[in-house]
Amino acid sequence: MSSRYQEVYAAWKSDPAGFWEAAARDIEWHRPWSQAFDAQAGVYGRWFVGAECNTAYNCLDRHLKEGRANQKALIYDSPVTGTVQTFTYAELTNEVATFAGILHDLGVRKGDRVIVYMPMVPETMIAMLACARLGAIHSVVFGGFAPAELATRISDAKPVVIVSASCGLEPGRVVAYKPLLDKAIELSAHKPTHTVILQRPMQEAAMIPGRDLDWAKTVADAKRQGRQAGCVIVSATDPLYILYTSGTTGRPKGVVRDNGGHMVALKWSMKNLYGVNPGEVFWAASDVGWVVGHSYIVYAPLLHGATSILYEGKPVGTPDAGAYWRVIAEHGVAAFFTAPTAFRAIKKEDPAGTLLGRYDLKTLRTLFLAGERADPETIKWAEAKLSVPVVDHWWQTETGWAICGNPVGLGMLPVKRGSPTVPMPGYDLQVLDDRSNPVPAGQTGTLAIKLPLPPSSLPTLWNNDERFVQSYLSQFPGWYTTSDAGYRDEDGYVYVMARTDDVINVAGHRLSTGQMEEVVARHKDVAECAVIGVADQTKGQIPAGFIVLNAGVSRRTTDIEQEVVDLVREQIGPVAAFRTVITVKRLPKTRSGKILRGTMRQIADGEPHAMPATIDDPAILDGIQEALKNRVRA
User: Tens of pLDDT along 111-128?
Assistant: First the structure.
């Protein structure tokens, strides 16, 4: 099938408001908009001004009257507990309406905030959708966040209620959440009126009488009384949620998502970008605490009338590197979305893809990757093993959906490995130099989006317009800066090479660490890698590479390291000054799979560094420090 992308993108560009008005017809509105886009409203304009709606209604109730009551809405698959549980649209609507009634009885009203500090369990989604049903604003904080970090979010959001669990589960260990929550509330300047705690049998929590309510008991009581809450009508421009960006210090940065534009963009993306039909199974193997989980576990699949999977497990270790293949085969997944890091972990443990042979993946049509640069070697491996298109796409917490992608539903464009393909409708993406001028094809600069941003993108930061402008809109007036560096080729394909602070200056030459990582990843023994810039008295900065080897590699690490150095010098040139490669067992990452390059650079330069709030395993940083101590910098 030939692609309609150029035609559709041109239609958007010629009439942006008309394009999104047409897309908005797929949403059920309580009242239509007076203006599709009001350039005078908000910081840079607002979408669907005057419209009224309810997001939970469009995710749930609407489907009951359209014949999907008995279709699966949610599949909870938890290899760490050995549980598989399904909810039809009727069952999920009932659970959400009941919990919304509980929240209402606890004093939660339209515009109030509720913090959700939970593991990957169905109750997390139920709590989020219950907030949306009431017109309340949820703020999900990744379960297990340290008390100090959670406390800053409580102080900023000022929740009426916090919903949490007694514990979360990681392979081989139980993480007690309730003591962390109690300490965070103690540290916070704001105190919630109540908490609702899901007691998990692996570790029950001590409760504080008068403040803490037991989820199971409270829900059972509400069901006995027939207590449910209906959908509260909100303005399209009212906030649906606040999502705090990771690693913030001081006052956290709360990305705001509105109700109306969010629904329109996500609904459009399910068919046009992901090529998924209502009734099919869509799986985003992310965490609900991250933007991917918000957009493509909770909201987009349900808005579309699809079936979503909530997975409490890992790509490896629960129980092995075939875990993802089992889920796809058992539940008939049509489209699968995960991070490149997950595939690198699978490739490291099972380089030959032997475990794939145990499962029938006939339903799988497409694999989507996002969250971290998808290096060409990982894409090649996935293409070869899965025999389906592997689609890299790029977006941010701030946008809520893809900036760039290969639109499967419009007909795929030719794949260029290493590129997330082209901008989606809504995004006028350019590569700018330091003076805000677009640069020629092939030249690296800052990737920036001409205002206004499309529906679903953040209208501002929570209670902080000034910081929003300073962080995103001030560097290039009239543009939103992504803070990513990259380029576009002669065909208009976009290449995202690094965060702008990952572009290093080696003796006056600006070099992308992402470009070097692409080369390092080509070595047959390298499972994953990170290249950072470290301080050097002579050259200003020099690159240092950290590599993790594939399982089963028994060659001398010094030989492999030298081969990697030679590979970079051969393919990029001596200008890169790439002479240091260090083999480590693991790379430090956030729990969403992003490599903590900034923290690695601080350690390498001997700078003070705070433990990142989102780090998956703090012990890995000790391994990085030890590896650096044992290596004399070249």
Answer: 999 999 999 999 999 999
